[in-house]
Amino acid sequence: MDISASTTSSSGVKTEVKTNNGMIQPNSFRVVAGPCTVESYEQFEASAKAVKEAGFSYIRGGAFKPRTSPYSFQGLGEEGLGILSEVASEYGLEVVTEVMDPKDIEKVMEHAKVIQIGARNMQNFALLKHIGEAIAGTDHGAVLKRGLSATVEEWLQAAEYITSEGGDNVVLCERGIRTFENATRFTLDLSAVIVAKRLTDLPVIVDPSHAAGRRDLVVPLSKASVAAEADGLIIESHHEPENALCDGEQALPAEALHGLKGILEPFATAMGRGVI
């Protein structure tokens, strides 16, 4: 596929517009927030309370965490899944969480509405096909993060591994790519958001937290994401980011999360959307 010559919908990705899949809704800008990892019941409960009070209805949290170092905290696994669903049910929140291994897909779906495929697994084609089969015909969805060095073409073709198995409810997520620039953790490629939305009708959201790697840039990049026609955000927040076991430096504290909806509303309104 030569995307430079493409106009619209030429990627081959299934392009039927998904307008009522829960996570992405018409004329709305979805914000998913929550901690990088589930560390304990108390930690996740406090973060869920902050997400709810901020006016959002989707929470993220990792039970299985891929880490660069094998000595870093890897998540609580099945114990974390139980905490995710118990706390989310208490606060009336829907869960987005990552799956890394095909053998975990079924049990993750018991606890989460949306499966996240992380950047490191974007081209784990066996995993993508299994997820496509698992969510086909269900109300579950998948968020596919762009790989650290993936082109837009590779990203869209990875999505096809899911859609070709019947898993139509796929949301693309731009989370920053590796470049020569080191002022930020990665480089947020907002042009890719616009290009992806020109090439497919799959929704596209943005993860400014992993792109920036620092919390002071998360809100400005969130505002820019609205203007770049993104359909939402997935951001990291923590009730005590200074004590987080993973990525605390890029997590918004509760007070910043509480103000985010009001900050984004004028930008979303200008784009004909409401923040949810």
Q: Briefly, what is this?
A:
The chain is an alpha/beta fold and 276 residues long. The protein has helices at residues 41-53, 78-91, 105-111, 125-135, 152-163, 190-199, 208-212, 218-227, 254-270; strands at residues 28-34, 58-60, 94-98, 114-117, 141-145, 170-174, 204-206, 232-236, 274-275. It starts with 27 loop residues before the first strand and ends with a strand.
SSE blueprint and pairings:
Blueprint (H helix, E strand, L loop, with lengths): L27 E7 L6 H13 L4 E3 L17 H14 L2 E5 L6 H7 L2 E4 L7 H11 L5 E5 L6 H12 L6 E5 L15 H10 L4 E3 L1 H5 L5 H10 L4 E5 L17 H17 L3 E2 L1
Parallel strand pairs: 1-2, 1-8, 1-9, 2-3, 3-4, 4-5, 5-6, 6-7, 7-8
Structure description:
This protein has 276 residues and is of the alpha/beta class. Helices cover 36% and strands 14% of the residues. Strand 6 (170-174), helix 6 (190-199) and strand 7 (204-206) form a beta-alpha-beta unit. The N and C termini lie far apart (35 Å). The model is unreliable at 1-17 (pLDDT under 50).
- Give the N-terminus to C-terminus distance in angstroms: 35 Å
Contiguous low-pLDDT stretches (5 residues minimum) are 1-17
Q: How many strands in all?
A: 9
Give the topology string: H per helix, E per strand: EHEHEHEHEHEHEHHEHE
Question: Which characteristics define this entry?
Answer:
globular, 9 strands, disordered N terminus, single chain, 9 helices, 276 residues, eight-stranded parallel barrel, 36% helix, alpha/beta
